[in-house]
Amino acid sequence: MTTLELLVTAAVHPVPGIRSLTLAAPDGRDLPGFVPGSHLVIECGGRSNAYSLTSDGTAPTSYTVSVLEVPDGSGGSRWVHRELRVGEVVTARLPRSLFPPVARAAKHLLVAGGIGVTPIVSHLRAARTWRRETEVHYVFREGRGAHVDDVLALTDGAAELHTDRAEFCARLEKALADQPLGTHLYVCGPAAMIDHVLDTARGLGWPESRLHCERFGLDALDPGDPFDVTLTATGTTVRVPSGTSLLEALETSGVDVPNLCRQGVCGECRIPVAAGTPLHRDLFLTEEEKAAGDALMACVSRSAGPSLEVPL
Amino acid sequence: MTALASSAAELIAGFPFPFPEDRYRYSTNVEPAGRSVSTPAGQWGAAVVDIDGEYAAELAERADILRRDPTRAEVLPHMQPAAWDAAMTLMRELATAYPSTMTLERLGDARWRWTNGLLGLTQEFVYGDGGTLPEEPLRWIAGQVQEDVVLLDQRDQLYGDAGVVTFAADWSFGFDVGMSFLEIHGPVPRVREEGVITRAHEFLKRLQPHQPYRRTNWTLTIGRRLDVSTELYPEWGPDREMIQRVDDATFGRLVHLRVEVQHLVRLPDSGAIMFLIRTYMLPLELLATVESWRRRAAEVLAELPADMADYKGIIKYRDRAASWLRAAGGEAP
Ligand SMILES: Cc1cc2nc3c(=O)[nH]c(=O)nc-3n(C[C@H](O)[C@H](O)[C@H](O)COP(=O)(O)OP(=O)(O)OC[C@H]3O[C@@H](n4cnc5c(N)ncnc54)[C@H](O)[C@@H]3O)c2cc1C
Ligand code: HEM
Ligand code: FES
Predict the structure, then answer these.
(1) Which of A3, A19, B139, B259 lies 20 to 30 A from A253 at CA?
(2) Fold of A3-93
(3) Which residues of B touch A101 (CB under 8 A)?
(4) Does ipTM come in above 0.90?
């Protein structure tokens, strides 16, 4: 089970431009738990978009996400805002954790900008359960702050809210200069803001190991470009669409390739390459083997060009 | 040494024979968990936690070891959430695998009721509230599964910062606690040059919740002795000399193929890695009753490179084990 069918049980517009969805299993069962800072990848009318979970991840019965409408984007967020209705079912992958809290941190300094508050909210929920010390700075445009009530409630009103950029920057610099040893910094928001916060921290001598950020703009999951693979043993050509692995495409066309992990680690699915340039994305082959270009791991790697030839 | 509660037939039927080929080398041999594997004698691997006829005996032995040597269990302070997460995850796994005897009911927000019918135990608790369990959560749940448990915290690397390990095969949890995954594997030969451990480390760092993986590891152990920890070396170390002098019948009865089924689980709440080690042992005399196992185990033991045999502590008797197995099938030794 790596995908979930989720029923939209509620949808609200807490502030202009943001739609918050509540999702549950259609049969009301418990949902898979998630580590604070995790996101769901949801199929949004033909696009697969990541949305941070803002609910409590411990033994959840529902999930919530908040989606900012990006009007000139490729349409996923617009679909969530304009097309998706309460009572409909969406397909999502299991929650993924890439922005977790650090268990040994003496204190958690959480900095959020705009819609970047979403993963911070789930961090705050866990911090409350485990009585972690936190300090929160949240900057947003006046009247557009999502989850302001949650952030205030979860910090007993201690979160510092900022709607003026210059004031935020000045306050941030002071805050970064004045933290107990062992504090970890977590920042999520627009790319420019993340860069500014991290640069300021580095300038003040923060070590990299204490800095954590999540970028919404980066493509976390790369489905890859489509390509053709020619099987020289039979002379047939198989199309590998974007989002389908070479391994899956070979299996579908009746070619069995031994495999175990399907994650580019175990080395089982290595296949030779007769022509074309592999796009290596695995952890198995050494740098030299990758450079040689005469083999690839079919479960994760693809073609750098429009076609590959394999002696299968 | 554990007194056996199961029949020979039960032990053979559930035995996870570990050799897919006639030659064994270290590899990052991980595969998705939960798939049942059929063997010529039965099957294994359907569940992440496995209860067999040795349940009561092994739990009693674990409790006894922990009473005598508390350093077999440790939960560093920052691992408290992970310990709760492990307890909860193991209860869920037990309830899923053994629904007729194990149940986990939600009573309210964070309140739960756990029933372990095999132990006649009912426990209500509040998740995260230490006062609601009779013991520290990891120790408490380790008293209900046959698996050893290590919890790894992920910082720049993975660190073994908590665990309950009573059945270690020639290592010491008390010594390793707090060490990084790479340091823990420092003594293993070959794996650095071959990248096995660095690859495993990268894999574990990326492992996501709800997608458990597993692997097997193996060695030979003399006598049905689960606790061959470094701490007890003076007790079992001399057996490696003794075994060279016993007659063939005794050899086949005492020498066991010891297999660990290890599960790798990203805990869904704390984000820690849970490493489960479930130990199975089968004496050569029973192993030899399954022809394909007898033949293959003999090949693997005979061919195993000396540095690996030395590391596993079997260099002095693995040749005899191979000949014993060959002779048991009427082959030339
Ligand atoms: C790990 C992760 C977590 C995320 N969590 C959330 C979340 O909780 N809520 C949310 O609304 N979005 C979140 N996003 C962004 C989301 O996945 C989509 O990128 C966004 O909804 C725009 O999608 P689109 O299909 O409309 O347009 P796209 O074509 O995907 O986006 C158009 C462009 O806008 C950029 N962009 C993405 N997000 C923003 C933004 N917030 N402001 C300005 N530009 C942006 C993209 O990089 C792209 O260049 C997250 C992204 C990642 C990788
Ligand atoms: C995919 C994951 C892993 C791989 C591939 C791996 C591989 C290995 C190998 C090849 C050995 C040598 C075994 C032998 O010859 O008997 C070993 C030993 C060991 N492994 Fe792992 N391992 C993994 C995960 C772990 C984890 C998560 C732990 C947790 C702490 C762990 C703890 C140990 C210990 C304690 C030893 C004994 C080391 C000693 O001699 O002191 N392993 N491992
Ligand atoms: S299946 Fe493991 S590397 Fe591809």
Answers:
(1) A3
(2) Elongation Factor Tu (Ef-tu); domain 3 (2.40.30)
(3) 271
(4) yes
